[in-house]
Amino acid sequence: MKLSILNHVIGPVIRGPSSSHTGASYFIGKLARGLLLDDLLEARIIFDKKGSYAKVYRQEASDLAFVSGLLGLDLMDEKFKRSIELAKEIGIKIEFSLSDLGRDAHPDEVVIEMKGRKRKLTARARSIGGGMFEFLELNGRKVMLTGDEYIHIFEAERGYEPKGIEAYSLESEDGKIVIVRSPEPSYPSIEGVRRRVLEPIFLPMKGKEIFSSGFEVEKFCEKEGMSLGEAGLRYEAELLGKSEQDVLKVMIERYKIMKRSIEEGLSGEVRLRVLKPSASTILGKLERGELAVGGLHTKAAALSMAVMHACNSSAIVVAAPTGGSAGVIPGVTAVLEEELGLSEKEIAKSLFAAGVIGLIIGKRATFAAEEAGCQVEIGAAGAMASAMVVEASGGSCKQALDAAAISLQNIVGMVCDPVGGFVEVPCHTRNAIAAASAFANADIIVGGYENPIPLDETVDAVYSVGKMMPWELRCTVMGGLAVCPSAMKFMPKME
């Protein structure tokens, strides 16, 4: 699978609190509704009873996200927060249930049974981390739809067989549906066959990946005389088939969304279920010199917590690389902008450096805590931020890769154990510590520490440890801090 920095690492743009359980759920619901080709009357959303969705779908707003997508609401529409009520008001029946989806079901697998006025459709899909998703089956027929291509749907008569094209076909109540994926909005028409086009959810990837590992990107930077951020910009432009200037503009817009999420988190108009908002209080004491130490690392920590305040209030955030880790990159970037006086272009290049680290982690491992624990979410964000600090300060590609590596080496084995199933404890402080430590990691490497275990091997080790974790420690609210006596009082809020 191709990975894009803007689609999968510094993005997508989602509603919080979770990219896996909120962001991807919205995208799955939206695409499922489009594939129905009919007015929706009923939908039954089925989670695997052993999986992560079953444990946290209410706390992490998966229910609101699926329904918002099925209703066709825009991501920015504030009706997202009352989508279930809205469905009732307009006469659409929604049901959530748990079942055994099979021994090999992904922790975030879902089956959606939809009924329209004339058609029915059953879709099986899964969220695979960082807002990414895969549709696996439509009406029992195997497919692979990931939201990064145009979907051309041809409504043909029974017995029609597509020839000379790569397509999925399935029977419907009134004929045959033929589905063709393409990076382009146009596609040759078929005489006598009606066609509909579903827009891609992510940016279409028309080109090729020019590297996929730390080893490859280091060699690329040496050959081209580039920094890690410049290499990331080149990679994304080649992959998306766009100019570097156009890709820079998109990244700058992503940073503007990050800054708005900081502002929203500091506004006081946030709603948390477990914690009391504290980011603005910490910043106030920092400015007055009332903290034990203070400094830019503490400011980055507080700003990262502000983003998490907003994220947990269903605000619009940038998954970086996930919703649960969405605070780290904005907190560090905002401090770098202020302390170093970076231009928009320099900020964007620093974010592309972070993006390359995320690409390597995504390629060799996963961004899903449901698969490998928090080490691949907040741990990944900390590694990305460490490389970003090196890039912003003028360090080399190798130094940025090494800063990311030592960041990951110090969080190997970090589990995902959200108290009450909410993305608050320990997520807020883990984001804060990851943001603060990014500066130390960068200084250690630039200062002369020689890292003996390269990034690729470090990521492989992290992933292997993640696969050894029992499922109780992978976002199921069944272990770690989530089952401490003091944490149990938050469990009733799950109902």
Automatic annotation (TrEMBL):
Name the domain of life this protein comes from.
Archaea
The pathway to which it is assigned is: Carbohydrate biosynthesis; gluconeogenesis
Q: Which UniProt keywords apply?
A: 4Fe-4S, Gluconeogenesis, Iron, Iron-sulfur, Lyase, Metal-binding
- InterPro entries, alphabetically? ASB_dom_sf (IPR029009), Fe-S_L-Ser (IPR051318), Ser_deHydtase-like_asu (IPR005130)
Q: Do you know which Gene3D superfamilies this protein is assigned to?
A: D-3-phosphoglycerate dehydrogenase, domain 3
- GO molecular function annotation: 4 iron, 4 sulfur cluster binding; L-serine ammonia-lyase activity; metal ion binding
Which Pfam family, any one, appears in the UniProt record? Answer: SDH_alpha
Query: Is Magnesium one of the keywords UniProt gives this record?
Result: no
Q: Which GO terms describe its biological process?
A: gluconeogenesis
Q: Which cofactor does it need?
A: [4Fe-4S] cluster
Q: In what residue span(s) does the Serine dehydratase-like alpha subunit domain sit?
A: 224-482
Q: Does the keyword Cell cycle apply?
A: no
Stated name of the protein: Serine dehydratase-like alpha subunit domain-containing protein
Source organism: Candidatus Methanodesulfokora washburnensis
Lineage of origin: Archaea, Thermoproteota, Candidatus Korarchaeia, Candidatus Korarchaeia incertae sedis, Candidatus Methanodesulfokora
